[in-house]
Amino acid sequence: MAADDPRPLTLRDVSEASGVSEMTVSRVLRNRGDVSQATREKVLEAAKTLGYVPNKIAGALASSRVNLVAVIIPSLRNMVFPEVLSGVSAVLEETELQPVVGVTDYLPEKEERVLYEMLSWRPSGVIIAGLEHTDASRAMLKASGIPVVEIMDTDGTPIDCAVGISHRRAGREMARAILKQGYRRIGFMGTKMPLDHRARKRFEGFTEALAKEGIEVIDQEFYSGGSALAKGREMTKAMLEREPELDFLYYSNDMIAAGGLFELLAQGIDIPGQIGLAGFNGVELLDGLPRRLATMDACRAEIGRKAAEIIASRVDNPAVPVEKIVELTPKIDYGDTLKRR
Fold first, then answer.
1. Which of these, 173, 205, 199, 196, lies nearest to 253 by C-alpha position?
2. Can you give the pLDDT at residue 227?
3. What domains are there in the chain, each with its CATH number?
4. What is the pTM of this model?
5. Which end of the chain is more exposed for a tag (fewer CB within 10 A), N or C?
């Protein structure tokens, strides 16, 4: 089968790739029958490499799609993603399509499992967070034969379509805004980045823009797990003890920035005169803070809407061309914590 062949994979493709009969392939994939371990491993490896996912729809419906759209996101605890889901739902409720949600906890191997299970029910489309996936996940998405929209990020090459923002550009723009206001001694706090690719790209863009002006991040700290508010406060206190001369704190998200704000207020620090701070995401829940955080809107609901519109359009008429990459433009909100001259 050619790599760019758009038709769905079949048992025959796995049979040809593994060199065993379709009946044997079927037995292996259904975990039935007397099949040697060597043959089983050969079939499973071929299926994984091709991206083949068995069809759980039986009988007359076996060749059909169901009116479900698989929406695969890293977390439901992070308030960013419910807003994306609201955008998806707002569009799909006007169609016959229904979203079904899978959560990966930012774990690539869990994303594989979730994707495999969802694709086995033959959804009409997939909306999946991020552009970074394992080889097995990419193979499954490419071989699915359905519309795929990767969301939240445009810094990369999508499998099919992408809707999001450039996180590197967002980081660069925030750095420029901070420098423009005269801040020079900057600290950074954020989530662990090997798995949070979008936070990593923002940090890369941020440090790149600083470097062009001869500025380096003075101190940085990363965390994983636990209350973001408490972590933000804890990390801010520790960083200021290490580097009391810092004049700006940039956080990878609004929740840890809110924790940092509470710590600065508790210490009686002049904000934004002595120390400024900014987060990312534009989370409305934090509008009631004692000071309005400087932040950048990540266009979450709009990303969900645009992605769902692409899926609905492609399902309704696969021949109609759609925009392959939709890049939205977030804007900086200076709030009360980033001074403006």
1. 199
2. 66
3. 11-54 (1.10.260.40), 68-166+300-328 (3.40.50.2300), 167-298 (3.40.50.2300)
4. 0.82
5. C
